Automatic annotation (TrEMBL):
It comes from Sharpea azabuensis. This is Ribulose-phosphate 3-epimerase. The lineage of its organism: Bacteria, Bacillati, Bacillota, Erysipelotrichia, Erysipelotrichales. Its EC number is 5.1.3.1. Catalyzes the reversible epimerization of D-ribulose 5-phosphate to D-xylulose 5-phosphate. It is an enzyme of class 5 (isomerase). InterPro entries: Aldolase_TIM, Ribul_P_3_epim, Ribul_P_3_epim-like, RibuloseP-bd_barrel. Belongs to the ribulose-phosphate 3-epimerase family. Binds 1 divalent metal cation per subunit. It catalyses: D-ribulose 5-phosphate = D-xylulose 5-phosphate.
């Protein structure tokens, strides 16, 4: 299985159909879809309507990363648009109860639920939810932009979470600054799924770019 999830954020949006085709042909079965609201992060990307179009245009599973302040309000639209995974940020949630409510909402819809943590957030923040979630998204950059430098703070968190994987049933995803060099230590630490934006879409030959990460 190819465990690279290319991030659409670095694609050419004027040519989405062939961009999607290029990564499907490179063997990828999961696409990372970064949603930014200009409030939780200082950038704006795309929303649920474009996700529905992407869902129509390819067969890949859609790994939606919500970098938005009110995921509880918007989540239904992304479920309806065809998300397979939905990650939301623990930093955006006002309470444990609301976090549980959102996880339940996602899972009741048959979608995989994931909690994302920023570089400044301890991995311990997700511990109360480990029985309920399908994935943890460990950020290795401050969210908001593609093409940033990998922050090694993610490696220790992934190693600590990885030890808990056998008892519980979740996978670990890393996001930010992943390239052929930085992926090595993250893989060793026990990460399962690797988001790569610029490392894939900034290369002409997408198959070669993906293979360089495997
Ligand atoms: C950053 C996004 C990432 C981004 C990764 O806020 O969450 O998914 O697209 O891009 P690279 O791989 O270029 O760091
Ligand atoms: Zn992302």
């Amino acid at each position: 299985m190819v465990d690279i999830a290319p991030s659409l954020l670095s694609a050419n949006f004027a040519d989405l159909k062939s961009e999607l085709k290029s990564i499907e042909e490179a063997g990828c079965s999961i696409l990372h879809y970064d949603v930014m609201d200009g409030h939780f992060v200082p950038n704006i990307s795309f929303g649920a309507d474009i996700l529905a179009n992407v869902h129509q245009a390819c067969k890949m599973e859609l790994d939606v990363h919500l970098m938005i302040s009110d995921p509880l309000f918007y989540v239904d639209r992304f479920i309806k648009a065809g998300a397979s995974y939905i990650s939301f940020h623990i930093e955006a949630m006002e309470s444990i109860e609301k976090t549980r409510e959102l996880i339940k909402k996602i899972k009741d819809a048959g979608v995989k639920a994931s909690l994302a943590i920023n570089p400044g957030t301890s991995y311990e923040a997700v511990l109360p939810f480990l029985d309920d979630i399908d994935m943890i998204l460990v950020m290795s950059v401050q969210p908001g932009f593609g093409g940033q430098k990998f922050n090694p703070v993610a490696i220790k968190k992934i190693a600590a979470l990885s030890k808990l994987k056998e008892e519980k049933h979740f996978i670990i995803e890393v996001d930010g600054g992943i390239n052929a060099t930085t992926i090595q230590d993250v893989r060793k630490a026990g990460c399962d799924l690797f988001v790569a934006g610029s490392a894939v879409f900034n290369q002409q030959d997408r198959k070669k770019a993906v293979e360089a990460l495997l």
